[in-house]
Amino acid sequence: MAHSRTTRRISLLGTVAFMTFHAAGALAQSAAPGSVIVLDPVVIQGDATAARFRATPGGVALIDRSETPTAEEAAPTLSDALSGTPGVVVQEFFGGNDQPRIQIRGSGLQQNPTERGLLVLQDGMPVNRADGSYVVGLATPGPAEDIEVFRGAAANRLGANVLGGALNFISASGATTPGTRLSFGAGSFGRVDVAGSYGVVNDQGDALLRFEHSEKDGYRDYNSSRRSSVGGNATLQMGEATTRLFFSHTDLRFDVAGPLTWDAIRNDPTSNHTGPVIVGGIPVGPGPNVLRDLPRRATTQTLAGARTTLEDGDNIYDLGFSLSRTDDSFRFPISAGYRDTDGTDATLTARYSRMGEGELPLFETGLYWSVGEADRDYYHNLSGTRGPAFGHNRLRADTLSLFAGANLPLAGFTLSPSVAFNHANRENDDRWGAATRPTFAYGPGGPTAGTAPAVSTSYDRSYHGFTPALALSWQPAEDQFAWISISRGFEPPTHDDLLGTVGGSPNSGPTGTMFATPDLKAQTSTTLELGWRGRWQNLEWDATAYHSRIRNELLSLRDESGATLASVNADRTRHTGLELGLSGDLGERLRGRLAWTWQDFRFDGDPVRGDNRIAGAPRHLITAALDWQASEQLTVGGTLHWIPDETPVDNMNTMFNDAYAVVDLGADYALNDRAVLFARVTNLFDERYAASTLVVDVATAGQAAFIPGEGRAIHVGTRLRF
């Protein structure tokens, strides 16, 4: 891969999770400290890995996909898989298809859509590009047996140079899912899903092939989506070393249904906005003309890699490599135009763990290094067709993290010091050779062409910083674990922060300089965190409280019409939150779960915004679920999704999204040990509400800023095992 400078990045792939655990085979590609690849789901190994999860001083969770309400579905959504996890905020964004806004502790909150702030991994290797950006829809939860969640500094060992942390989707293997498995589903708004896998296992190794396809016409008039993926993995035993090879290919295409005015949310939520209307010479209802511009995204990614672990007594060695090719075409409304990005990224990870008498490594160190190069081209959007080009760029990025940490017994406590060094380069070579760039705007007579002087967008930026952390943990009682920690965070900007179109409007493409290339600083933070998890009789809990002081928080701003403004660094902000998970048996056949996320994100003495709340972050997010085992064959469940207070749409706190509550019901019926039928009803009471909003700096009354949640929907299907 071509690259102008070679930089190294190192990270320990040690991470941890708590809550449920069912098989070591499912964690064969875990990022837990001291984890190794195993051929079989050995119970002893599983118990050891689960113990490491419980002993980690940080905000972590392990989602056992078999225990989620949609475990039997062919193509579960990210919202289905993640919404019951405390600290993980999942909101519909593009209007019902599986492209949600995901944020943890305010990560990437201001982006529309969110494209940074989390490290997204598949089997321990990144879906992100080398600059840290990602397309959320490329993370498919269907093939995953487990999802590891690492919030905040718990992801430092992964090389996650982001505020939010990391998500690791752990694929099934031939050892854990042998034989043939098929799933089918169909439902409201033209939804059709199909998925299948075939796995084999013997003494020398295992192998699995799988596929998944889902498509949907969508709840709204312009709202179709389609996602297809194929993949597989193979595990080979070679002496004391075990190697896992894996690959995946995902093809993702979806319409961007866009925002609506609040009046449309209440009266016509299936519609699409058609731009501002001029009343008395004043534009009313600013926002994109979706039915004219037909915004849409089409992305493909091919990811292949290998990971080898070697156990030598108390020493564990782990080496991983992955290569990905991502082709992404995003047709924005006319204000931004087409953005085509085609590139290749390579990632190398290495780690060493020295185990002691405790559950966690006595010492661990590692490396994470990701490099990438991409061609990015810009074109005008003329009524949904590709118009003249106005930008050609070659983007290069490399991100390096080096990590070292220890877990030292100390008089009944464990002291866990660590430090990471992070270095990142972001380089843009502007290859537009002409003296001017074309412009286009719509007037009463249709589109009119013009020109603007071409201003170079080239830049070469470098960022580096240390992220030390110190945690103290102890067991206040049997089956309980508590910790307190302080940590530093470091997050460099992505190319999407550093290069963006400006000057557009709902009826014109970019004008003026046409691009902004702000000289952004890396975002840094200091976080104090306390946590307590454990079990008492039938009750399990996991509680984490945190307070972060952030300097130079990266904000991606938009104006009242939704058009992009230049990204900026906020001087000082503060993020405070509480993440609480409770679960327990309420009777012989009844079990309850509660996830409560409270978050208060504010500017800190900003000269313009004062101490206002940062837009887009609901203060409370509550998910409550009940599961009833009605018989040996029948399970019935219900889930409440509740945001009990209003959420600011703009940073000036002049416009707010209303509170809402949505109820889902579901049932699974096992015909035998090989066939299961399922049925789901989402939004049972057909609530009309805004699931999320655009995040703007200053809102104006009547603007299109609200993303409607999907109406009542029914989904039925079956899962077969052979």
Report on the structure:
The chain has a 22-stranded antiparallel β-barrel. A five-stranded mixed β-sheet has the order 1-6-7-4-5, with no helix packed on it. A two-stranded antiparallel sheet has the order 2-3. It is globular. It has five helices and 41 strands. It has a single domain (45-217, 240-721), classed as Maltoporin, Chain A, CATH 2.40.170. A hairpin with a 4-residue loop joins strand 31 (568-585) and strand 32. The chain has 722 residues and is mainly beta. InterPro entries: Beta-barrel_TonB, Beta-barrel_TonB_sf, Plug_dom, Plug_dom_sf, TonB-dep_rcpt-like, TonB_rcpt_CS. This is Iron complex outermembrane recepter protein. Its main location: membrane. It is a multi-pass membrane protein. Belongs to the TonB-dependent receptor family.
SSE layout and pairing:
Layout: H1 43-54, E1 59-64, H2 78-82, E2 89-91, E3 101-103, E4 118-122, E5 125-126, E6 144-151, E7 165-171, E8 179-187, E9 191-202, E10 205-216, E11 225-238, E12 241-255, H3 262-267, E13 277-279, E14 282-284, H4 290-293, E15 296-312, E16 315-331, E17 338-355, E18 361-382, E19 385-406, E20 408-410, E21 413-430, E22 436-443, E23 446-453, E24 459-466, E25 469-474, E26 480-491, H5 495-498, E27 500-501, E28 515-516, E29 523-536, E30 539-555, E31 568-585, E32 590-603, E33 620-629, E34 634-643, E35 647-648, E36 656-657, E37 660-672, E38 675-682, E39 690-693, E40 706-708, E41 713-721
Parallel strand pairs: 4-7
Antiparallel strand pairs: 1-6, 2-3, 4-5, 6-7, 8-9, 8-41, 9-10, 10-11, 11-12, 12-15, 13-14, 15-16, 16-17, 17-18, 18-19, 19-21, 20-21, 21-24, 21-25, 22-23, 25-26, 26-29, 27-28, 29-30, 30-31, 31-32, 32-33, 33-34, 34-37, 35-36, 37-38, 38-41, 39-40
GO molecular function, one term: siderophore uptake transmembrane transporter activity
Pfam families: Plug, TonB_dep_Rec_b-barrel
Protein name: Iron complex outermembrane recepter protein
